[in-house]
Amino acid sequence: MARVVFTPNIQRHVICPETQAAGRTVGEVLAHVFADNPEARGYVLDDQSALRKHITVFVDGTMIRDRTRLADAVGETSTVYVFQALSGG
Amino acid sequence: MSDKLLVSTRKGLFTVARSGGIWEIEQVDFLGDNVTLTLTDRRDGFNYAALDHGHFGVKLHRSTGNGWEEIAAPVYPPKPEGYEENDMWGRPLNWSTARVWSLAAGGPDEPGTIWCGTLPGGLFRSINHGKSWDMVRSLWDDPKRRQWMGGGADLPGIHSICVDPRDSKRVWVAVSTGGVWFTEDSGASWTLRGEGMRAEYAPPEQAHDPIAQDVHCLVQCPTAPARMWVQHHNGIFVSSDEGKTFTEITGVEPSAFGFAVVVHPREPDTAWFIPEIKDEKRIPREGKLVVTRTRDGGRSFDVLTKGLPQSHAYDIVYRHALALDEAGERLAFGSTTGGLWVSEDAGDSWACVCHTLPPVYAVRFA
Fold first, then answer.
1. A54 and chain B in contact, CB less than 8 A
2. Model confidence over B310-346: pLDDT tens digits?
3. pLDDT for position B285
């Protein structure tokens, strides 16, 4: 199962502990995470289940490309990081 | 008369209370977060607060008396596969709540019903105090809805909701930019109203088209519901027939441009506005912050200045940031530069509660 880690900045709004989740794609992994933590779903995904505009996901250090269908592959031992983009000076 | 205000700001929700004749900040909630709007439901005393977390989306919270709890936020339905819809800039329109721009309680015969208007134009209704929301598909699916455009924001949105105090099934909503829409069957069907409004920024052949109107704020007199007032992008308009037709009020000094309007609860001819130099600049004229008040249906206006800054004031007052209490005596407004003023004499004089708040988005009597 993949290891899933959320940005510390989201914890102020909704608790998202590090967890393990099964799935062959980012979408499958996150679906399992949000099945156990449904309150977090709307903080990461928009109404159409795409990544929110300023959220990004890295799989094993590589930023995913499919922000809409979340089809980027996840390995059995992958680490999935859910970050928010930072901007400003 | 109300002794409490909820002030929504860029950096938190400020509760301001009157004690010993003085209005003071009593409590701060959501400090550091962007609170965009509140609703106090007078049927049950519940408070609702809309937050925009930016990266993490738009959220709703509810207080039933013991702190705030997050409740469901309106969620747009899945966009049909292959369905194409672009916004006015040619970009694909994301069917996703971009802002909660209006909240209104349903009628006394429908406890728990809350209406919610959003960007990019979806209207939602909850029948369970915000536990869940359903989009009003009849309005969203109306082909004319695709003619709505962004005004101050990139996307169109519903900023005003008026529920008929005589019949809860009758509801008006106003859109920037998209005119005034009316249902008399709880949202099952809608008609476009607002004949008589004029959009001076539109091409001549569209200037009088009701759907081209950039209504900034629509209010309805609770005891004379046929009377509606509109603060429009290029003027002030008044209706005496439930928004079917409007008449432009001309010659308003110092300006007919603004965002906010409130109407007296028992005197339909009495309404208040906060004028600015129109859209090219959006600042008070000559740096003087004033409130205008008509008591004769718009034939004349008092320019109210007592207690308000009359030099180098650059305060903008957004459409939800002017409030009137149910008695029609107390007013309050907050500005983009963090000022908050209260009047206890229908606007004749004002007291500054604070001038160092974060930018104020909404002011409501609780």
1. yes
2. 999 999 999 999 999 999 999 999 999 999 999 999 9
3. 87
Note the ipTM here: 0.90
Instruction: Please tell me whether residue A85 adopts helix, strand or coil conformation.
Output: coil
Is the CB of residue A24 less than 8 Å away from at least one CB of chain B? Answer: no
Contact A84 B55 (CB under 8 A): yes
**Measured distance CA(B168)–CA(B174) in Å, rounded:** 17
Residue B363, pLDDT > 60, answer yes
For chains A and B, what is the number of CB pairs under 8 angstroms? 43
Q: Which residue has the higher pLDDT, B87 or B181?
A: B181
The secondary element (H helix, E strand) that includes residue B322 is: strand B322-324
Q: Does residue A46 sit at the B interface (CB-CB below 8 Å)? A: yes
Spatial CA neighbour of A5 closest among A69, A73, A79, A66: A79
Q: How far apart are CA B92 and CA B87, in angstroms?
A: 6
B100–chain A nearest CA distance, Å: 14
Overall pTM surpassing 0.90 (yes/no): yes
Name which of A48, A53, A54 is nearest B78 (Cβ-Cβ).
A48
| Residue B47 CB burial class (10 angstroms; 0-12, 13-18, ≥19) | buried
CB-CB under 8 Å, B55 with A9 = yes
Residue B143 CA to residue B112 CA, distance in Å, equals 30
B57–A52 C-beta distance less than 8 A: yes
